[in-house]
Amino acid sequence: MDAGEEVRDNVKKYYGSRLESSGDLQTSACSLSCRPVPRSVTDALSLVHPEVTKRFFGCGLPFPAKLDGCRVLDLGSGSGRDCYAFSKLIGPSGHVTGIDMTEELVTASRQYIEYHQKKFGYEEPNITFVQGYMEKLSEAGIQSGSMDVVLSNCVICLCPDKKTVLQETYNVLKEGGELYYSDMYASKVVPDHMKQDAVLWGEGMGGSLFWKDLISLAQSVGFSTPHLVSATQIVVYNSELKAKAGDISYASGTYRLFKLPKCPVMTGATVTYKGTVADCPDQLDFDSSHCFKKDVAVEVNGEMAAILQSSRFSPDFKIQTLDKPESSSESTPQYCHLNPFLLADKLGSSVRQCSKTSK
Fold it and tell me: Can you tell me the distance from the alpha carbon of 62 to that of 317, in angstroms, rounded to the nearest whole number?
């Protein structure tokens, strides 16, 4: 068994058998985001069967706007809570696929397909659960270029080969598609000895990526620069685990990354939001740095212009390309606005305890 297989095997045991509910986790990583949640999302979550919600281990709310009719893939779908909420949000014309490597969780998820189909009033189910690995999406039957949106909730930190996960995700997305996900991030590079600790890894602490490394990793497989949507500080309740972490802090960060067309024209533009996205009639909070108010023209850089032009949000904006080239400062960007720790401090985000133990 190689190191990657050993890590996956430990995670299967940790989440499949050891943890009965999110209350058994030793950190606040399963807390919800402090950002305002659209009514459609809270309504969808409220309709999910309680037994499914009980075994939810996520660390945020990866629910982007405008999912109606989309083909959605949930990486590490776990109990299926997010998948069933997505099932409601995408409507009967969309489809959700949940993939998880843990047999117990996939089996449990499938038990509630008919329940939610009837709950949502659909003639046919619009959801599928498959057992497989995030690093091997094609082997699990996920076609290249088949997905509009890929979502994930606090599971990439449990995967030893994050670059392969991002590459596989990039491959299955359509051009203009989006990876929108929440995950745990570390304030500095996690040392190797912490990665060998099965409990630290199971809690997401051992495998958390140093937040700055996400930027280069995403760009190396072809994605746009990540856009930070929301962030929350994570509290470690267990005193033993806290001691092992030392001076490393953790935060939950939700980012969105886009698969842009090959060789896009990176020219700045003036964009005007039309107010046409459901739940966002007055303004669209695209990320923590971009809030587009209806009928208010805003100048954006070339990459953001390319995202709005190529993504599912294109019909919702009037886009006027600027003649002037990108300024030279764009070639050496500063990424402070992508730091989840700074954003969590700025928001003063508080976390909701979800651990039964506060040792």
Answer: 23
CA-nearest of 172, 94, 93 to 132 is 172
118 Cα distance to chain centroid: 27
Residue written as tokens 């999912």? 67
Q: Which two tokens stand for residue 221?
A: 């497989």
Q: What is the pLDDT of residue 25?
A: 45
Residue 203's nearest CA partner among 34, 358, 11, 341 is 11
Determine the Cα–Cα distance for residues 258 and 261; give it in Å rounded to an integer: 10
Q: What distance in Å separates the CA atoms of residue 347 and residue 256, rounded to the nearest whole number?
A: 19
pTM summary value? 0.88
Tokens of 149: 């949106």
Instruction: Write down the pLDDT at residue 245.
Output: 95
Provide the greatest CA pair distance for the chain.
60
Name the β-bridge partners of 74: 98, 151
What's CA 150's distance to the chain center, in Å?
A: 8
Closest CA to 31 of 59, 68, 65, 66: 59
* DSSP per position, 101-156: S-HHHHHHHHTTHHHHHHHHT-SS--EEEEE--GGGTTTTTPPTT-EEEEEEES-G
**131 neighbors 107 (Cβ within 8 angstroms):** no
End-to-end CA distance of the chain: 34
CA quadruple 318, 324, 326, 329: dihedral, nearest 10 = -130
Which residues in the chain show pLDDT less than 50?
A: 16-19, 21-34, 350-359
- Token pair belonging to 243: 């001691």
Contact 102, 110 (CB under 8 A): no
Measure the CA–CA gap between 105 and 131, rounded to whole angstroms. Answer: 9
What's the token pair of residue 110? 């499938």
Q: What pLDDT does residue 357 have?
A: 27
Encode pLDDT of 205-230 as tens digits.
Answer: 999 999 999 999 999 999 999 999 99
